[in-house]
Design goal:
The chain is an alpha/beta fold. The chain has 7 helices and 14 strands.
């Protein structure tokens, strides 16, 4: 069920127009999805309710597909299915994917600290902590591990930079330590970044500076950065934003998908690679 928080008219459906070699006009919009954290129901709700072309439009997942929620394997499966159907889908690594890989590769137990949510993923894959003698006993499907291992740490296109946690102002992400890209929580970025439009997740918007938020579970928009991780609480939604029109779609556990027009808050797009 879709609830239009603001009416969406034809003027809001802005998309990129590409000319193929065959001379056919191809229309493609870009969507960004925040931290899913194992909430397959909310992802499927977006897939059903967002008016996109799921086989053609560009969709960027900002990472943290797993942990905390009940069905991390289902989320990974669903995203892999989408990637196989649509070459324009980009999936980034988050800190939770990195913790899983570090646990499997190096025996790093940070992933299994209860507060980090890895135990929910472990259980969803059919294992309980008290049944394990060693991390080598954890058997996650190899295709899932390989998929997660191959995820990039950032993406950039003509419109924006996309990253899980944030950027170092004045530094291109290609020059930044990957730990920063998936772990940083830096007020200099949240409040001082004014470079090329940047979408990020990782820090729930409820904990971001108040001046960039307008409501509970709203997204964060300040200068050039846009935070869309609205996870972290019972009842909180999964957020998806169309880049061109800044139309926000939020799927709630209640089954409602709310739609809000935010074009009036869209930052002006800088041609700079990053903030000077």
């Amino acid at each position: 069920m879709i609830n239009f928080a603001a009416a969406v008219g034809a003027e809001d459906t802005e998309i990129l127009i590409w000319q193929s070699w065959e001379g056919i006009i191809i229309l493609m919009a870009t969507y960004v999805i925040g931290d899913i954290h194992g909430r397959l129901k909310l992802l499927d709700q977006l897939i059903q309710d967002v008016p996109w072309d799921i086989a053609r439009d560009k969709i960027v997942f900002l990472g943290d597909l797993i942990d905390r929620g009940a069905d991390a394997p289902g989320v990974v499966n669903r995203v892999m299915e989408l990637v196989n159907r649509n070459p324009n889908i980009v999936v980034l690594s988050g800190n939770h994917e990195q913790m899983l890989l570090d646990c499997l590769a190096y025996g790093d137990l940070q992933w299994l600290i209860p507060e980090n949510g890895g135990l929910a993923t472990l259980s969803a894959y059919g294992f309980e902590l008290d049944q394990l003698k060693d991390v080598s006993d954890i058997k996650i499907p190899p295709e899932h591990v390989e998929f997660i291992r191959g995820l990039p740490f950032y993406h950039e296109d003509e419109q924006a930079i996309y990253v899980h946690a944030g950027l170092v102002p004045g530094e291109h992400p290609s020059e930044t330590d990957t730990d920063v890209l998936v772990w940083t929580r830096d007020l200099d970025f949240f409040k001082g970044y004014d470079g090329k439009l940047c979408f990020f997740g990782h820090t729930p918007t409820a904990f971001l500076p108040r001046e960039g938020r307008s409501r509970r579970w709203g997204i964060y928009i300040h200068n050039g950065c846009v935070g869309i991780d609205t996870s972290g609480e019972d009842g909180s939604p999964l957020s998806c934003i169309q880049v061109e029109s800044f139309t926000l779609y939020q799927s709630y556990p209640s089954g409602t998908t709310e739609v809000e027009r935010l074009k009036h808050r869209k930052p002006s797009i800088s041609t700079a690679r990053v903030a000077p």
